[in-house]
Design a protein that fits this description.
The chain contains 11 helices and 13 strands. It is α+β, with helices and mostly antiparallel strands. The chain folds into 2 domains: 134 residues, 2-Layer Sandwich (60s Ribosomal Protein L30, Chain: A); 184 residues, PurM-like C-terminal domain (Phosphoribosyl-aminoimidazole Synthetase, Chain A, domain 2), CATH 3.90.650.10. Strand 12 and strand 13 form a beta hairpin.
Length: 342
């Protein structure tokens, strides 16, 4: 039985990827095909490449229109391409009101305007197949020329750089969806600051900086968090990696909420964080800081297949990402505290 979240990579490879690869049609104009860990696929349309990616929003109950646009465009940015337009499929549960759809679309349009892309269409319906609003989006982008970056292009000896802070998106989701509960145990100011972390969701600027610096691979840290994204980059590249967990930046708001919810911030969904493989990681960090983006060298790509992370000078096996920490959150201690106070 599957856990909530991404399908395990071994099962995905056996049941999905192998089936896709077994198909007879192999078009010459398809230049980047699906692989585990790759964010996009691409088609040669002449002078440049048309890049595609698709993702649903399933872990959040609020602000999902905004999240859907931002997170899908991040996959295009991770390939070094420019997002152009997006299609949205919106599924609403029975009992939904017009205000629910209005709020979703307002958020989607706000994100599209921030990213200078168009909403090209999609589909909207009410269905008993869902118990809360669900959006699945497909985004289209274009390359500059015929070059795009692959997640699986990290090279041995390169530094692993991450931008911003671990658990970025998950922090914003939890702070918004559990606001009333969290206010019982933390002040309003840090909770509001946690909710406002959603303004850092786009990785467009760090994509441009990393490309100019000569990065060879980029990967948006979504489900599975920062550790999951680094594992996927290394696995997709057929390389090993050593991660310096103590060097991974985490905001205090994230630490507080994750401690209350009994989850690991390093395995919490982190859209807005870019994981980058490059030579001269410290130079890239300086370039990012010059553009107002926090960055840190957090690992090293290795020649062998060993994937480990170091924490307090101890070595641990870096395993493939399982169910995201967002689905493991446990606020039962807060509920018990509230009952005692009553």
């Amino acid at each position: 039985m599957f856990e909530i979240g991404k399908i395990p990579s071994k099962v995905l490879d056996e049941l999905v990827m192998r089936t896709v690869r077994g198909g007879q049609t192999k078009r010459d104009d398809v230049v980047l095909r699906p692989e585990i860990g790759e964010d996009c696929s691409a088609i040669d349309v002449g002078g440049e490449l048309c890049v595609f990616s698709t993702d649903p929003i399933t872990g959040a109950a609020q602000n999902i229109g905004y999240l859907a646009v931002q997170i899908n465009c991040n996959d295009i940015f991770s390939s070094g391409a420019e997002p152009v337009g997006i299609l949205l499929t919106i599924l609403l549960p029975p009992g939904s009101e017009q205000e629910d759809l209005q709020e979703i679309m307002a958020g989607a349009v706000r994100a599209a305007d921030e990213l200078d892309i168009e909403i090209l269409g999609g589909h909207t319906e009410v269905t008993a197949a869902v118990c809360q609003p669900l959006i699945s989006a497909t985004v289209f982008g274009k390359s500059h020329g015929k070059t795009i970056l692959r997640t699986g292009a990290a090279q041995a000896g390169q530094d692993v750089v991450m931008t911003k802070w671990a658990g970025l998106e998950g922090t914003a989701i939890l702070a918004k969806d559990y606001e009333a509960l969290l206010l019982q145990v933390m002040p309003q100011k840090p909770l509001t600051e946690a909710q406002e972390m959603s303004r850092f969701l786009s990785v467009g600027e760090e994509s441009r900086v990393a490309l100019a610096h000569g990065a060879s691979a980029m990967h948006d840290a979504t489900e599975g968090g920062v550790l999951g994204a680094i594992w996927e980059m290394a696995a997709c590249s057929g390389r090993g990696v050593t991660v310096f967990a103590d060097d991974i930046p985490i905001r205090e708001e994230t630490k507080t909420i994750c401690e209350i919810g009994r989850i690991d911030p390093l395995r919490l969904i982190s859209s807005g964080v870019m994981v980058i493989a490059t030579y001269d990681g410290e130079g890239l960090v300086k370039a990012l800081e010059a553009s107002g983006i926090h960055g840190a060298v957090v690992g090293k790509i290795t020649e062998n297949s060993d994937r480990i992370y170091m924490r307090e000078e101890k070595r641990f096996l870096l395993e493939e990402p399982g169910s995201d920490a967002l689905y493991q959150v446990d606020f039962s201690a807060v509920e018990k505290m509230r009952k005692k106070e009553k």
